[in-house]
């Protein structure tokens, strides 16, 4: 709700789509620049305490922004400063929210918990923009900020009510070498490195649907805006189905990660076919296999690394995931403009498929050292 309301508020205050893009950059840019440093902080201190702090600050920022907007005092500089403040919080908040999953449920239940979290996230993608749009139209965008402030406060209450003595936290070490230890962990567990590399490549090549879908909607015979909403909904439905099914079948492996990336590439390549029924089916498939790939890769990486460096490894994972999407969007736009829409869609799918097959071949040939694919209770380092 807040993302939609903030974009709308910036657009109203400035009338500039460029400034809307700048506001988005301010929300995600700090994580790309300082992500590894944030991961080191997450591994040094209690993740529960860090999240209480970051979510508490986020709650206060949202409520204050909501009050300012409702009172008419939320000028463009205020909105941009709020965007930058949220972006700085994500440097610690994002890796902490990923890494704390294992602390809360333990290594065995981690894949199911990550899938459950993904299903809730997809529900938010479906419901949040609708609620925010209704709020903007009826009572004003400021109430979306207030609603998000309440949501963050509820997370703080939940964290405070959790019992640290029942969590699966491992002792923090003050003697490691900060950021370097996270990179050393990735080098020591080759399949984790290959997985994170594949996530980065697929993010650049295939996870750029907003650019492709807007162009596809513009070419469709119906109403462009309505078609874009329908396309996005079909993807979200597929992603929700994938997340729910993975929550019931939580086993993860490197093979599943690579397989999901390969099938995603095939389905996205077929999306280039000019047939409405094929387009609808492929959009659901892209959502399903895209979510399967991201959830499986997330769970595989987290279960394969020791808790002491999980925050730094997940920070690197998120940097490549978000950085890849940031790079992939403009790249996809250039391909659409110079080669055509259908060619751009096919190229994005083929690139993901090629990356998956190449990764599998390199690992199987022995040039990429392999550890066991089994993600049992012990970490790959411990095995």
TrEMBL record:
Domain Major facilitator superfamily (MFS) profile stretches: 1-167
Main location: membrane
The species this protein was found in: Curtobacterium luteum
Locations listed in the record: Cell membrane
Alphabetical list of SUPFAM superfamilies matching this protein: MFS general substrate transporter (SSF103473)
Protein name as it appears in the record: MFS family permease
Domain of life, per lineage: Bacteria
Parts of the chain that traverse the membrane: 16-38, 50-68, 135-160, 191-213, 225-247, 254-271, 277-301, 313-332, 344-363
InterPro entries: MFS_dom, MFS_trans_sf, TM_effector
Keywords: Cell membrane, Membrane, Transmembrane, Transmembrane helix, Transport
Pfam family, one: MFS_3
Record's bilayer topology term: Multi-pass membrane protein
């Amino acid at each position: 709700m807040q993302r939609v309301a903030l974009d709308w508020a910036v657009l109203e205050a400035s009338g500039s789509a460029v400034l809307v893009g700048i506001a988005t950059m301010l929300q995600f840019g700090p994580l790309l620049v300082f992500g590894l440093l944030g991961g080191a902080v997450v591994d040094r201190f209690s993740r529960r305490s860090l999240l209480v702090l970051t979510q508490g600050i986020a709650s206060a920022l949202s409520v204050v922004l909501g009050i300012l907007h409702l009172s008419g005092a939320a000028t463009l500089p205020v909105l941009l400063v709020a965007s930058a403040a949220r972006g700085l919080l994500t440097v610690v908040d994002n890796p902490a929210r990923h890494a704390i999953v294992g602390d809360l449920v333990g290594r065995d239940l981690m894949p199911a918990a990550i899938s459950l979290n993904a299903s809730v996230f997809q529900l938010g993608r479906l419901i949040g923009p609708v609620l925010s749009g209704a709020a903007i139209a009826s009572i004003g965008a400021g109430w979306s900020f207030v609603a998000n402030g309440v949501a963050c406060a509820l997370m703080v209450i939940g964290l405070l009510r959790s019992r640290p003595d029942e969590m699966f936290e491992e002792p923090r070490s003050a003697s490691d070498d900060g950021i370097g230890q996270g990179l050393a962990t990735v080098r020591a567990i080759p399949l984790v490195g290959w997985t994170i590399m594949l996530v980065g490549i697929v993010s650049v090549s295939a996870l750029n649907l907003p650019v492709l879908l807007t162009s596809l909607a513009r070419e469709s015979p119906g109403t462009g805006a309505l078609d874009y909403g329908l396309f996005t909904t079909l993807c979200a439905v597929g992603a929700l189905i994938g997340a729910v099914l993975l929550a019931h079948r939580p086993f993860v492996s490197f093979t599943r990660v690579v397989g999901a990336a390969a099938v995603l590439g095939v389905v996205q390549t077929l999306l280039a076919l000019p047939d409405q029924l094929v387009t609808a089916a492929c959009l659901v498939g892209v959502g399903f296999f895209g979510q399967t790939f991201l959830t499986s890769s997330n769970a595989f990486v987290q279960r394969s690394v020791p808790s002491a460096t999980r925050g730094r490894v997940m920070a690197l994972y998120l940097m490549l995931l978000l950085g890849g999407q940031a790079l992939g969007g403009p790249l996809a736009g250039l391909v659409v403009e110079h080669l055509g829409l259908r060619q751009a869609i096919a190229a994005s799918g083929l690139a993901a498929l090629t990356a998956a097959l190449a990764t599998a071949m390199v690992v199987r040939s022995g040039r990429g050292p392999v550890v066991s694919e089994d993600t049992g209770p012990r970490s790959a380092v411990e095995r």
